[in-house]
Specification:
- This protein is α+β, with helices and mostly antiparallel strands.
- It is built from 23 helices and 20 strands.
- The strands form six sheets. The protein has a four-stranded antiparallel beta sheet with strand order 17-3-19-18, sandwiched between helices. Strands 13-5-15-14 form a four-stranded antiparallel beta sheet.
- Helix 1 crosses helix 7, helix 3 crosses helix 7 and helix 9 packs across helix 20.
- The relative contact order is 0.13.
Length: 704
C-alpha cells in the first residue's frame, strides 16, 4: 500500500534522527566516565547461545524505545516506572528475537510487506490497530467508527494515517514493529501447536482413570512422631543422597543469600501536631479564596492537579459525594483522611449540563501551513453556520470526505471523554446551535453542537491535600539509628546476633529481581548484594519512601551445581526423613500379615478413611499432596492392602475398600480437552526449552 510505504519512509527518518542523537549521547557518556574503556570491566548485559550482548549496544536500543514513546505521547519525560517498564520490555523483545530468530530463519518464516500492510490497514487489522483508535474503554472512537457496522472504518483510518504528524507517526511505527513480531511468533507457535496430538489409546486410558473412583482406609505414621536422634546419619549417607539427587541442586543463575533489617520512618506525635496545624491553616485559606484563586491554590498543595470536571451525583468519591451533591457553592468538607493524605473538599460550582452532546464539524485545511490564507474562508463559514444549514455547509465545504458525506455528523460524545478543558466547557455549556472554531496543525475545525441530552446538575469540586508523612527531623533520626546499628554490628556474628532481636528477614536474591519481601524499592539493595563479598555489611540503603535497610551478605551461591558443603544441613534433613521412613516401613512390614488394624496397633496409630479419590486427585483431604499414595492406589484392586508407601508426611499402608465408576464421558471429549490444554502450554514450554538450550544468562539487573 502506498500509504504504508510513505509512512515507513518518514518513520525511518525519525528513527535515524533519534538513533543518531542517542549514539552520540551514549558514546559521550562512555568516553567521559571511562566505564566502557580503559579497564571499565565486563559490560555484558546478557549471554545468549554463547554470544555476549554489550550493554552499550542495548542501551542505544532501549533509549531509542524510550524516546519513541515520548515522541508518540508528545511529552518531554516519562515517569520512572513507565521508563523502567519500556526498558524491561525492550530487553525481553531483544531476547525473544535472539532466541526465536534462528528458528524463523530455519523454517523460512517471515512477514512480507504486503502481509504487514494488510495487518495494519486491511479490512481486518491487528488488535493493536483497533486499540489505537479506541477510547480506552474498548469502544471505537466515534470519528473512526463505521456507522453501518459499528466497527473500525478503515477508509477513515487510512485518511488519518496519511496525514499523521511526527508524534502520531512514532506511535504508528512502534505498533507496526509490534504487529510484525507478533505475527512471526504466531506463525512459529502455530506450527508447534498443530504438531501436538493425544493418541486414542492414551485418551481412553486417561478417561478410564478419571472416572474410576476409590474409597480407601489407611494407616499413617508421621515422620514427626519419631525424634531425629532415633536414626543415625553418617557423612557417607549425606554424600550418597546428594550424589543421587544432584539434579535438584543445579542453579541456572547465580544468586545471593542475604538477611536484612528495616527501619521504618513514621510520623511522630510532634510531626502529626505540625501536620494538623498546616491542615488547619490550609482549611482557613481555602475557605476564603475567590473562585479565580481556587485552582492555583489546589495545585500548590500536595494534590498537584486540579479537576476541571463537573460530576453528576454518584460520580464523586464516596467520602464526599453525598455531602457535595446536597450543598451550596462554597461548602467545605473535611479535613478527612484518605490514601495517606489529609483532604479538604470545597464545592466550587454547580451547573446544569447535558451528560452527552451530538456535534458536527467542517474541516478547512491550511495547505503548507498557510493559516493566514485559510483563516478568512474559515471565518466566513463560521459566521453563517447554524444548526439548520450546517449539514449542507459541511457537504460542500468540508475537506474531510468521510464526515462531509454525513453532513459533518460526528455522533455523540460524553463529558470527561478527554477533550481539552476549555473546549469541553464551550461545547457542553453552550446551547444547541452553538458554533466554535479551532486551529489545528493541519487547518481549522468548525464545530456545531447539533443535539444534547437532558441537562442535569453537575458539581465542580476542588480538593486540597496534605501528605501525612514524617518530618525531615524524624527521617534524620531514624537514619541515624540505622547508621548506628550498622556501625555497631559490622561483622557477620554481631549482625546475626543483633538482627535476631529485630525484624530480620532472610531471602535469596537473583541479579534480575525487582523486589524483595517487605521492601517497596529494592533495586539498590539487590545491586549491592552483587557488588560485595560474603560477610559484608551494607551502609544504610534507602528502600522507597520512609524506609531504610541495613543488610548482610550471607552467601554467594554460584551458577551450576551447588557444592554439598553449602547445603549440607538441608541435605541432612532429607536424609533423616529417609532414614525414618526406612525404620517405619520395616516396622509396618512386620505387621502386614495381620491386616490394616494390626499395622495400626503396631504403630500406635488408628485407621482413617478417604473417599472419592481418583488418579487425578490433586490432594487428599487433611493430608495434602501425596502422589506416591495416589499412584499406588491406582494400580490396586478392591480388597488389596499395599506395601508401606513413603509419602510426604510419613509412611502409609492403604487398603482399597471399594472402587466404582462415575458417569463416563466420551473419550473423545477427554482427548479434545487434553489436547487443548497441551496446545495452550506449547508456546511457553517451547520457549522455555529454547531459552534453556540457548544458555541465557541475564545481567540486566546490574544496569536497570
Amino acid at each position: 500500500m502506498s500509504a504504508l510505504e510513505s509512512i515507513r519512509k518518514r518513520a525511518k527518518l525519525l528513527v535515524i534522527i533519534i538513533g543518531a542523537s542517542l549514539v552520540i549521547f551514549v558514546l559521550e557518556d562512555a568516553l567521559t566516565s571511562g566505564k566502557f574503556f580503559f579497564g571499565g570491566g565486563d559490560n555484558t548485559i546478557a549471554v545468549i547461545n554463547g554470544k555476549k550482548i554489550d550493554y552499550t549496544k542495548f542501551r542505544i536500543e532501549a533509549d531509542n524505545a524510550v524516546e519513541k514513546e515520548k515522541a508518540s505521547l508528545g511529552v518531554q519525560s516519562l515517569k520512572d516506572s513507565d521508563e523502567a517498564g519500556i526498558v524491561q520490555n525492550t530487553f525481553k523483545d531483544m531476547v525473544f528475537r535472539m532466541i526465536l530468530g534462528p528458528q524463523y530463519q530455519k523454517l523460512g518464516i517471515n512477514v512480507p510487506d504486503s502481509e504487514l500492510a494488510n495487518l495494519m490497514l486491511g479490512p481486518n487489522p491487528a488488535p493493536d490497530v483497533y486499540r489505537l483508535f479506541s477510547d480506552g474503554r474498548g469502544h471505537i472512537m466515534k470519528q473512526f467508527q463505521d456507522p453501518r457496522t459499528g466497527g473500525l472504518n478503515m477508509q477513515m483510518v487510512v485518511r488519518y494515517v496519511k496525514g499523521m504528524n511526527d508524534q502520531d507517526l512514532a506511535r504508528w511505527e512502534m505498533i507496526e514493529e509490534r504487529v510484525k513480531n507478533q505475527d512471526l511468533q504466531s506463525k512459529y507457535f502455530y506450527l508447534l501447536i498443530n504438531g501436538v496430538f493425544i493418541p486414542d489409546a492414551i485418551a481412553k486410558l486417561d478417561n478410564e482413570d478419571a472416572s474410576k473412583t476409590y474409597d480407601i482406609s489407611y494407616v499413617l505414621k508421621r515422620y514427626a512422631d519419631l525424634p531425629d536422634n532415633s536414626v543415625t546419619v553418617s557423612d557417607q549417607d549425606i554424600q550418597d543422597y546428594y550424589n543421587k539427587h544432584i539434579y535438584e541442586y543445579h542453579q541456572q543463575q547465580e544468586t545471593r543469600k542475604v538477611d536484612y533489617v528495616t527501619f521504618s520512618v513514621n510520623p511522630t506525635d510532634s510531626d502529626m501536631m505540625s501536620i494538623n496545624r498546616d491542615v488547619d491553616s490550609m482549611y482557613s485559606q481555602f475557605k476564603h479564596l475567590s473562585p479565580k484563586e481556587d485552582s492555583g491554590f489546589i495545585v500548590a498543595t500536595d494534590a498537584q492537579v486540579f479537576d476541571y470536571q463537573y460530576h453528576k451525583e454518584g460520580d464523586l468519591p464516596v467520602a464526599i459525594d453525598s455531602v457535595m451533591t446536597h450543598a451550596e457553592i462554597g461548602t467545605m468538607y473535611g479535613p478527612y483522611k484518605e490514601d495517606g493524605k489529609y483532604k479538604i473538599a470545597k464545592l466550587l460550582d454547580i451547573a446544569n449540563l447535558p451528560d452527552s452532546i451530538k456535534y458536527s464539524q467542517i474541516f478547512i485545511p491550511a495547505p503548507n501551513g498557510d493559516f493566514d490564507k485559510a483563516r478568512p474562508f474559515a471565518d466566513s463559514i463560521k459566521k453563517i453556520a447554524t444548526v439548520e444549514n450546517f449539514a449542507d455547509l459541511a457537504k460542500t465545504n468540508s475537506k474531510d470526505p468521510e464526515s462531509a458525506e454525513k453532513g459533518g455528523d460526528m455522533g455523540w460524545i460524553t463529558r470527561g471523554a478527554g477533550l481539552p478543558a476549555d473546549l469541553e466547557h464551550k461545547m457542553f455549556f453552550g446551547e444547541v446551535g452553538n458554533t466554535m472554531q479551532l486551529q489545528l496543525q493541519q487547518g481549522f475545525l468548525i464545530i456545531c453542537v447539533t443535539d444534547q441530552t437532558k441537562r442535569i446538575k453537575g458539581y465542580k469540586v476542588g480538593i486540597a491535600m496534605k501528605d501525612i508523612e514524617p518530618s525531615t527531623a524524624t527521617q534524620q533520626k531514624v537514619y541515624a539509628e540505622a547508621t548506628d546499628f550498622g556501625g555497631k554490628n559490622h561483622t557477620s556474628d554481631a549482625f546475626e546476633k543483633a538482627a535476631a532481636q529485630m525484624n530480620r528477614r532472610v531471602v535469596n536474591v537473583g541479579e534480575n529481581d525487582n523486589s524483595l519481601e517487605g521492601i517497596q524499592t529494592s533495586k539498590e539493595l539487590i545491586r549491592w548484594t552483587y557488588e560485595k563479598k560474603e560477610g559484608d555489611i551494607s551502609d544504610v540503603i534507602t528502600a522507597g519512601e520512609n524506609k531504610y535497610v541495613v543488610a548482610h551478605l550471607i552467601q554467594v551461591i554460584k551458577m551450576g551445581t551447588i557444592p554439598l558443603e553449602e547445603i549440607k544441613n538441608e541435605v541432612k534433613t532429607k536424609v533423616i526423613q529417609d532414614k525414618k521412613a526406612e525404620k517405619i516401613m520395616a516396622d509396618m512390614k512386620s505387621a502386614l500379615a495381620g491386616g490394616l488394624s494390626s499395622v495400626a496397633q503396631k504403630e500406635g496409630s488408628s485407621t482413617a478413611t478417604a473417599k472419592g479419590l481418583t488418579f487425578g486427585s490433586p490432594a487428599i483431604p487433611t493430608l495434602g499432596k501425596e502422589d506416591a499414595l495416589i499412584g499406588t492406589m491406582s494400580a490396586m484392586n478392591t480388597g488389596a492392602i499395599s506395601q508401606p508407601i513413603q509419602g510426604q508426611l510419613g509412611v502409609y499402608v492403604i487398603k482399597i475398600d471399594s472402587t466404582y465408576y462415575t458417569e463416563k464421558t466420551d473419550y473423545r471429549i477427554t482427548q479434545m480437552k487434553e489436547q487443548r490444554a497441551m496446545q495452550n502450554r506449547t508456546p511457553s514450554d517451547a520457549y522455555d526449552a529454547l531459552v534453556k538450550k540457548a544458555g541465557l544468562v541475564s545481567h540486566i539487573g546490574k544496569y536497570y
